[in-house]
Specification:
single chain, 6-stranded antiparallel beta sheet, two-stranded antiparallel ribbon, 10 helices
């Protein structure tokens, strides 16, 4: 069983707020539910015990049990005597193909017309869920960055967490605030050839709500993006959470290539 500090980031473990309007059990429930629905706690993943959750998040055993009971009631996890609790949720995914070049141009355009504030950047060992997503050796360090993107008049609309491998230069707060991460990645030898991303809805944690000027538990649009290089390796994992009243995700699709 992986230690709880390996399954959750330090920011997540410290994200619960007892003084806020949202009960602790609901904050923890939303955090775990968000992890399961986004796939970062994938089908078959073993969850910490109630005692481990209580100790790791600083809540009571009663609170931890209530959270697990809610996840069971939602058919997201299953308890088995002697084996613990495992994720049983499997997302239904329908792929839409779109040109990568156009998407990168849109990202570059957004970076020029908005502001980024880096909250945290470090090179460290990632949580095991990220190790699995990036297919890393367990001893490989990656660059972990958290940042907030705002409009030109400094109204925040997006909260980002990213893990990037193979970076030897340029991943500083100053550079990331001035340039696109894809440009810095290219200078480190990463040529992005394919991107997979998943959209879902979730509830804002107290940490994200504070940065996006929301109420904890408010709905946010969540995007998880995997960026692949020419060798088919995942070199970057990005988790985005968007304020739904300040950001809209639009796709323009054409029937030109439809052969049916």
């Amino acid at each position: 069983m992986r230690k709880i500090g390996q399954l959750f980031t330090p920011m997540e473990l410290a994200s619960l707020r007892a003084e806020g309007p949202i009960p602790l059990y609901h904050q923890l429930y939303q955090l775990l539910k968000r992890r399961i629905l986004s796939g970062t706690l994938a089908y078959g993943a073993k969850l910490p015990t109630e005692a481990e959750l209580a100790e790791g998040f600083g809540v009571s055993r009663v609170t931890a049990k209530r959270v697990m009971d809610l996840l069971v009631a939602d058919d997201l996890i299953k308890r088995q005597r002697g084996r613990g609790s495992h994720v049983i949720y499997e997302p239904s995914v329908s792929d839409v193909e779109a040109p990568l070049v156009g998407m990168l141009e849109k990202l570059a355009s957004m970076s020029r017309t908005t502001k980024v504030r880096v909250l945290h950047v470090e090179k460290s060992l990632p949580p095991p869920t990220v190790v699995d997503d990036l297919r890393l050796p367990e001893d490989e360090q990656v660059h972990y960055v958290t940042r907030v993107r705002s409009s030109e008049d400094r109204v925040p609309f997006a909260y980002y967490e990213s893990w990037t491998r193979g970076i030897n230069k340029g991943f500083t707060a100053k550079n990331i605030e001035r340039r696109t991460r894809f440009d810095i990645m290219a200078e480190n030898g990463h040529r992005i050839s394919r991107i997979e991303q998943y959209l879902s809805a979730s509830a804002a944690s107290p940490l994200v709500a504070e940065q996006l000027q929301m109420v904890p538990g408010d709905p946010v649009l969540t995007l998880v993006r995997h960026s692949f290089d020419d060798n088919g390796d995942v070199v970057d994992l990005l988790h985005c959470q968007y304020h739904p009243e300040r950001f809209h995700y639009r796709m323009n699709l054409s029937m030109e290539d439809y052969a049916g």
